[in-house]
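Thread: Modeling a multi-component assembly for a lab meeting

Hi all, long-time lurker, first post. My supervisor asked me to bring a structural picture of a complex we are working on to next week's group meeting, and I have zero experience with this. I have the sequence lines for every component (541 residues in total). Could someone generate the structure of the whole assembly? Inputs are pasted exactly as I received them:
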Amino acid sequence: MTSRALMARLGPALACLGLLAVWQVAALGLNSDSFPTAMDAIRAIPSILGDKDALINILASLRRMAIGFGAAVLISIPLGLSMGRSRTVASFFNPLLMVTYPVPKAALTPIIMLWIGVGDLAKILVIFLGVSLPVIYHSFEGAKAVEEKMLWSGAAMGLSAAARMIRIVLPAALPDILTGCRTGLVLALITMIMSEMIARQSGAGNILFNAMDMGQYDTVFAMIIIIGAMGISLDAAFEAIRARLVRWSEPQFDMPLSFS
Amino acid sequence: MNLMPSRPDLQAESAPAARPAPAIIEIDHVSQVFQTSARQDHLALSDISLTVGEGAFVSILGPSGCGKSTLLYIVGGFVSPTRGSAKMKGRAIRGPGPDRGPVFQEFALFPWKTVLGNVMYGPRQQGVEPTEAEAKARALLEMVGLKGFEHFYPKELSGGMKQRVALARTLAYHPEVLLMDEPFGALDAHTRTRLQNDLLNIWERDRKTVLFVTHSVEEAVFLSDKVVMMTRSPGRIRQIVDIDLPRPRRRSELLLDPRYQEYVVEIERMFDDTDDGGLKP
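Re: Modeling a multi-component assembly
Sure thing. I ran the full set together rather than chain by chain. Output:
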């Protein structure tokens, strides 16, 4: 391995170490009770992950996140694609989306909880809302950009309108769809923690904010590290899947061979 | 040189003895109006009637914006005409179908499929077994000169190679008519020449009916049995010219053939004579 490749491989790890070092120095310098050092926070991690209740809480969070994300993707992709291919569908849903897009989901959360309670369903719904919009938007843009002639080629081969949607529009728009899903995944994590901050019963957010109330700041920061690590791992796993699925559209393929 | 103007709807009489081939495509008084804005209509095609005989190579030649591609899309069933009708083997065209295979200037390959996957797509759609479809696709790819590129993705190919794949993909499902929409228009001159030669070789083997849209006079004369000259906006048929050059045609021989040169010069002159400013856009 060349030194440059080695650097590229180690880059993320070095960046994390750097961040922790800055944190450590800053915390030592400030010497405040509400700002533990990085070492203290890291030392608190094993006790959280070793605690059965905490693990159950974190798993419950992940479960809600998976359900919310999955449902959002299953509904948003077909909706976005039909909007991209049908002017009628687009003219109906577009204004709705434009209105809801800028509304912070945190502002909607208390209202939703007022209506349907503070249970799992409300939290899943909040995650669902957070994930849907970017996925719909990117699926819409992707479907809109599908070349008409590609659909004509499919039609000439005998593909029906429905078959063209599934076998041409869907794969052709896949790079855009997956970009939306990747954004959606991060938003799922954010809305998950947020919903648990508002309705404190269980979950990773619950551990974090309870610790905050009790002044256990090393636990607070340990949870922040754990949530951050969850975000990085989910994103990395998703990116690995995405890269495999849309290998055909990646930029390194852009160099055409010189042959007529 | 005698370029007898033939009436568009009576062209069978322009060469009565030579071509008794039955009509495969009949275009009957077709007009196409596009709405460009809320109150503005654009007449793209005006009262086009044309009959294409089975096995003929017919080029539709005209300046940009004369509606020649639209005419092809109507035959393909991708666009329905505002007035008039188009028939394929006596049956009204109501939509796209595998009996008419398009090849577009933009290639329109499926980028998520490999070269092989693209060519196998049509046969698979028609229910051909995977192994058989693959064998067929490989044979076609060899014919268009792409042996060894089966597992490449379209993005990895040059324009000329993409158009070869597109041609193979369309030939793979055995359309009775090839609809070629300025297929070599996006290619450089050298690549274009090579593809013209290869298309001619392939065509002269199985003589499928070809409807070929182009704005290049040389290309039209080199390839065709018949050149349909169109006027600019609204698109009308100006004249139909029978290209009476021997086949198989070899480029090296044809370019030196005074008859070929006369056709080219004569057609260019006729375009220059028209008051709509000739062939150039």
